[in-house]
Amino acid sequence: MGHRRLERWCPGVTDELVRDGARLGEGEDVRFYVDGRLKAPVPEARTLGATRPFLEVRLRRRVEPLGNVRFVRAEATDLVLRGGRVTGVVMDDPADDGLLDADLLVDATGRSSRLGEWLGRHGWGEAPSTG
Ligand SMILES: Cc1cc2nc3c(=O)[nH]c(=O)nc-3n(C[C@H](O)[C@H](O)[C@H](O)COP(=O)(O)OP(=O)(O)OC[C@H]3O[C@@H](n4cnc5c(N)ncnc54)[C@H](O)[C@@H]3O)c2cc1C
Does the pTM of the predicted model rise above 0.85? Predict the structure, then answer.
């Protein structure tokens, strides 16, 4: 699934990854083990095998040239709220003023997300979650 999304957003990325050394397995070639147990084969499975840094550096190269993308190396430490809505993020970024305004803020900080804590700090309840 993730692999199909990558190909949709970055056309040709599968060929590029395979050319650089990733392994592509399809159908019964792909064996999934969960807790050491082999799962039943999925005929339509198409799986790309690569390390995370290998994948991320190639995706980053695709995203970097986009004119409306800016990379900021900083830690997000809080939300900015105005008028009852989130309007930005506070960053631990010595090179900037530490504030980043946003029309839409997406929390992509994974399992270590502190979004619930930040919302609580500003008087909001925990956001509903699924999955
Ligand atoms: C041991 C292990 C093996 C796995 N193997 C696979 C696998 O083979 N295939 C697979 O598809 N999935 C695998 N997963 C699951 C996969 O890693 C996760 O589902 C995926 O990484 C989640 O992506 P994400 O972008 O939501 O979060 P993450 O990958 O966790 O990315 C979050 C990013 O946000 C950054 N961040 C966090 N807090 C802040 C902050 N305050 N300010 C700024 N940045 C911040 C982090 O540094 C990180 O770079 C594995 C997971 C584990 C733990």
Answer: no
